[in-house]
Amino acid sequence: MQTILYSAKDRGSADYGWLKPNYYFSFSQYHNPSKVHFGVLRVLNDDFIMGGGMFPPHPHDNMEIITIPLTGALQHKDSTGSEGLIKTGDIQIMSAGSGIQHSEANASATEPLTIFQIWVFPKDRDIKPRHDQRSFDVTKRDNQWQIVVSPREEDNALWINQDARFALTNISAGKTIEYKNGFAGNGVFLLVINGSVEINGTTLNKRDALGIRDAESFIINATEDAELLAIEVPMGF
Q1: pLDDT at 80
Q2: Is 168 helix (H, G, I), strand (E, B) or coil?
């Protein structure tokens, strides 16, 4: 097993007033040559959006874009004709494909919104742009993995144009959980949303992450109640 620590305190950051992002990988004005991507995982932004904040319409192409609201609700609209609210417990995925425009806004004029914005390089380029979202029962991830994004029908998850999987769990203090790769040779970017865990002798606290490669499975020990996101991706890029 090879690991790379992505400490919360070492993330890039910015302050645009209405938007306060933290960057795990190089993005916008933040550039760290040692943290450009993890396999096909290109962007992971931890965004704090003030009430009334909005990303105006802007284009994307050939990227799989996943949005995970942590608190609040996000108003989405795109050039495929899709629009609606994405709330806590929901996951959204957008295949930018040959080209798409979208806008995103905090649905509240007064309350802040926190989200993860995640970009994954696609498996096939220039596909027809698409949008999908789903509400997941968060109780189904108590001390077990709930797969929320996957290209495989049997995973009962949102489809992604890549051999990648996203899984969430809420693990109780003192419990252990094993992660097993869905695709041979993939790496896993494990992010602690809240709480604290230990993996192979490394302690991770809130918003710390660990890039794990050359391991088809690994064990996670919860040192306190923890909420985790596992992003499994191909490493060849």
Answers
A1: 87
A2: strand
* Nearest by Cα to 115 from 126, 100, 104: 104
Contact 95, 71 (CB under 8 A): no
Buried b (16+ CB within 10 A) or exposed e, 132-147: ebeebeeeebeeebbb
Residue 81 confidence (pLDDT): 86
Residue 230's H or E segment, with its range, is: strand 226-233
For the CA atoms of 102, 106, 108, 110, the dihedral, rounded to the nearest 10 degrees, stands at -140
Q: What is the CATH number of domain 138-233?
A: 2.60.120.10
Q: Are 71 and 113 in contact (CB under 8 A)?
A: yes
Residues 199-231 have pLDDT tens digits of 999 999 999 999 999 999 999 999 999 999 999
Residue 8 backbone zone (phi > 0: left; psi -120 to 50: alpha; other: beta): alpha
Q: Where are the domains of the chain?
A: 9-127, 138-233
CATH node for 9-127? 2.60.120.10
Do residues 164 and 119 touch, judged by C-beta distance below 8 A?
Answer: no
Does this model's pTM top 0.90? My answer is yes
Amino acid at 92: Q
